Amino acid sequence: MFNIVLVEPRIPQNTGNIGRLCLAGWARLHLIHPLGFLLSQKHLKRAGMDYWDALEKYEWDHLEHFWQHYPPNEEHFFLSTKGKRNYFEANLKDECFLYFGREDAGLREDILHTHSSQTLTLPMRQGRSINLATCVGAVLYEAIRQNASSLLE
């Protein structure tokens, strides 16, 4: 399974949609607190529909707590509009970790600087960005494409 890591997400509908993507796309969802919503909010449940309860999901108090369990290495990728390398150039192996930051701020600068060789971007027009759930879907399905032979057996 792949690992989708949402660092301090703010919009419940995005998180619900990402949960649906994870369940359909062989991925676990890791939610890094603080969240900008309650997991009991109806918007999250509506977007996640009946998938939410079946989803393999984990909550973490903060990113450093998560890293105590899953220390960053070459299998951890950080998505940002500030990345220099396109996501389809990375070798996204099964069990890799794909990090996505807050909808309003992205990942912290210190994370991007420390892990610059593992920071990826989606190609898009300068000055534009896309919805977080759309971004997660694009990267997750590239990982699926790269690992299709083992996933679809």
Description of the molecule:
With 153 residues, the protein is α/β, with parallel strands linked by helices. It has a single domain, classed as 3-Layer(aba) Sandwich (Alpha/beta knot). It is 34% helix and 19% strand. Helix 1 links the parallel strand 1 and strand 2 (27-32). The protein is globular. The protein starts with a strand and ends with a helix. The mean pLDDT is 91.
Biggest sheet overview: 7 strands, parallel
Distance between the termini: 14 Å
Order of helices and strands: EHEHEHEEEHEHH
Q: Report the top-level CATH class.
A: Alpha Beta
Sequence-ordered SSE layout with sheet pairings:
Elements: E1 2-7, H1 12-24, E2 27-32, H2 42-48, E3 57-60, H3 63-69, E4 76-79, E5 85-86, E6 97-100, H4 109-114, E7 119-121, H5 132-146, H6 148-151
Parallel strand pairs: 1-2, 1-6, 2-3, 4-6, 4-7, 5-7
Helix pairs in contact: 1-2, 1-5
Family: Belongs to the class IV-like SAM-binding methyltransferase superfamily. RNA methyltransferase TrmH family. TrmL subfamily.
Binding site for S-adenosyl-L-methionine: 79, 101, 122, 129
GO molecular function: RNA binding; tRNA (5-carboxymethylaminomethyluridine(34)-2'-O)-methyltransferase activity; tRNA (cytidine(34)-2'-O)-methyltransferase activity
